[in-house]
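Purpose: get a first structural picture of the assembly so the mutagenesis plan has something to point at.
Setup: two entries, given in the order below. No constraints added.
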Amino acid sequence: MIQEADVLLKVEQLTKYFPVKGGIFGKKTLQQVKAVDGISFEIKRGETFGIVGESGCGKSTAGRAIMRLLEPTSGDVHFEGVNLSKLDKNEMRKMRKDIQIVFQDPFASLNPRMRVYDIIEEPLINFEMGDKKERKVRVHEVAEQVGLTIAQLSRLPHEFSGGQRQRIGIARALVTKPKLIIADEPVSALDVSIQSQVLNLMRDLQKEFGLTYIFISHDLSVVKHFCDRIGVMYLGKMVEITNKHDLYDDPLHPYAKSLLSALPTSHPLQVKERIILEGDVPSPSNPPSGCTFHPRCFACMDVCKTVAPTLQEVKSNHFVSCHLFEEEGVKSG
Amino acid sequence: MTNVMEVKNLRVGIRHDDEDIAIVNDVSFHLNKAETLGIVGESGCGKSMMSLSLMGLLPAGVRWQSGDIVVDDLQFKNFKTRDWRNVRGKKVSMIFQEPMSSLNPVHTIGNQIVEMLLSHEDISKKVARVRALEMLKLVGIPRPENVLKEYPFQLSGGMRQRVMIAIALACNPEILIADEPTTALDVTIQAQILELMKDIQKKLKMSIVLITHDLGVVAEVCDRVIVMYAGEIVEEANVVSLFDSPKHPYTQGLMESLPDIDNEKEYLSSIPGIVPSPGNMPKGCRFAPRCPMAHERCHIEPPTFKTEDGSNVKCWLYSEDREEVKL
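Result (structure tokens, whole complex):
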């Protein structure tokens, strides 16, 4: 197991339910959408942890619930030994100096009326870091690190291309010298040639400042390139967590298997054995009983329809949530 | 192989300050029967504008400046609205990226397919309804009888895209234009839709023009590929040679900037700079300012097409003594 001292972030049974309101006054809770349903994992200092899954699996909600941009329904998040869920609003706000986020859409996440300089400076003012002079030095320093020129700082966001805007978003996250950056689909709005520029930049910054990343993405090849350990999410639950080589060479969970096999080939002559999944992701407001993947699973057993599996370590540091790998499952299957 | 469509020196653009600015500049290519032709390029390269001009669907303000498109004995250049109506759906059909915004939200799925059939064929409503049901079965929709009576919002993204394909194929077109058909879908659904398109192509022997930015999708389904950059074609090759030995420096850069799932490297290579904007194009080769192999000539004179190992490439790197070729 990972040494306690190395662990930067520990997430325990984190859940986020969204109530669906109804009734005459719209106050009655009709049902709960279980966007994130009890996920647990640990992240070591300096590593990149990837969260992959299809749309609606709750990966973005998980990222936001970790830094309490969305208030979690239950569960604990320990950051450097501090239980974030026990902090009051003010203490949590201060904590965000160390946990920053980069958003997907570089067009929507920057205020169009603010100059780039003010966008990058704003976190410093929020956290009362330094006087005006010191802040200016810091903004210039960060701008240079992400590849923006000093002259560009006086411009407005609309004057920049998508890739450059994402650099501004990264600079804003970096300016407070955070320890953890949650990157929510940071490159999916960008073209491939620009995407590689941004990924290279993020890797350089990680090396230079010893950053820890949570990298949320739906793109499996980008995740393999960029992450050290990966958690696969399906319908609000982590179904498999392991390092990238184990996941890509030997995926265990049937969902992870079919997800990886669905990837387009990288060469036209490459023949791929493909597991085509039937149907669509069910609605998280009314998930299937037992294992939520069972209606689409090619290895579904009787037990899967009634009993939800739990995440278990089946190989060293390889966690899977599937009855196929439990004692009973092996017997009956 | 028979040629089902030929695009000749197509130029599409806008008029700004009494000047014609080309978004698609001098594009020529042909489409063979029963082949899948991929058109790849990054955002802003003009691939979508080109595909819209194949259907006569150019948005207001964008004009067909010169060139022609020939399908069978029809020349699209002089088409009036009525001529277009006869061609759309019957000869050339199109599916779009976002199936929700291309379906009518207030009509049932069945009515939308029936409408398509009735506008092109002289059949009764009853027969059209039966045909609509057959189409839904063809595209693999579960419980088609019910879906016929449902509205687009009741279906998932993948199912909506299947419905789009059913509508597009209802009148047996010779050519299907698919503009980023899987971009809005998840990988597992993308795999289903690509599989379906391959399957239907085999059954109906139609030709597909697939517009995409995703080289993985190209590798998966295309026979031949056209690479576009800044409104022009820079390379045309069959899919295997494109992946084995890309010729144009832009194609090479594009291939190398993709993370490769089988080969790990710490840093990805990237193409420096950004795509130039229309109306502000470099004088010589349009890729020259970003090209690692650009030399003096590239900045002065635009290159012409040369054949190299069976690929056609628009680049000065490939020797100058060869004859210029036409695509």
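The first strand of chain A starts at residue 7 and ends at 22.
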